[in-house]
Amino acid sequence: EIPPGRPLRVDDLRMEFGGLTAVDGAGFAIEEGSLTGLIGPNGAGKSTTFDCITGVHRPTGGSVKLHNEEITGLQPYEIAARGLVRTFQITRELQEMTVLENMLLAPRGQQGESLWRAVLPGVRRSVQAQERELRERAWETLEFFEIDHLAEEYAGNLSGGQRKLLEMARALLTDPEVVLLDEPLAGVNPTLERKLLERIDELREQGYTFLLVEHDMDVIMENCERVIVMHQGRVLADDAPAAIRENEQVIDAYLGA
Ligand code: ADP
Ligand code: MG
Fold this sequence. Notes:
Layout: E1 8-17, E2 20-30, E3 35-39, H1 46-53, E4 61-66, E5 69-70, H2 76-81, E6 84-86, H3 92-95, H4 99-104, H5 111-118, H6 124-144, H7 160-172, E7 178-182, H8 190-205, E8 209-213, H9 217-223, E9 226-231, E10 234-239, H10 241-245, H11 248-256
Parallel strand pairs: 3-8, 3-9, 6-7, 7-8
Antiparallel strand pairs: 1-2, 1-4, 4-5, 9-10
The structure holds adenosine-5'-diphosphate (ADP) and magnesium ion.
């Protein structure tokens, strides 16, 4: 039913908070290896949509499918283990750990399995091998984002932009296929912003799929091949950037906001 190459599909998604409808029947499908923009005025329901997709909230209606498999209502760690992640905020407690420690703590898909392996003496070596591999990958990922020189720095001492790079590095360490980014460029200086967008572009060429919420319209229009516009909990438009720019309903939605 889902065209191959569309790893993420959302149908008729609804999220109600008491009497407030934050997401009101939103639907879209994301192309594999794409960078798709998700925009809309404040309060349009973008973050709540991300929360429903990644299991932070159980939606009150509709479905979320990853490679045709229902993931609606699963726990965030279960969804991450299946290859769909969002960036992880560096919370207060994580600020008191180093960058490298943050990387080694990144949620891992095989955690349950390796726990079982740890109690079986015959395969203990493979646990050590896994740990070694995780460390290597953590370093490689820090190098990729050019923050390896900060490995021993406390996360709390990073600049806003460096922290965004670390959040993205942590997300990638879970070995995802689909990455949801909610305003990853907020508070990021132009140099780091360019670096982050270049990294996204490289990863996209490797087959990673990105869905990006970003309020800077120029960034969206210049970097995304497709743009989904949300307004009042619904998808108002889903089109190429050039068509979105000229869409009267979209212009009205922003002017009316
Ligand atoms: P966006 O990210 O597009 O700015 P949100 O998804 O954050 O929009 O919010 C959509 C609507 O849902 C807003 O009216 C917001 O106040 C409301 N909302 C979001 N989260 C909650 C919550 N946990 N409880 C109650 N209302 C919420
Ligand atoms: Mg938001």
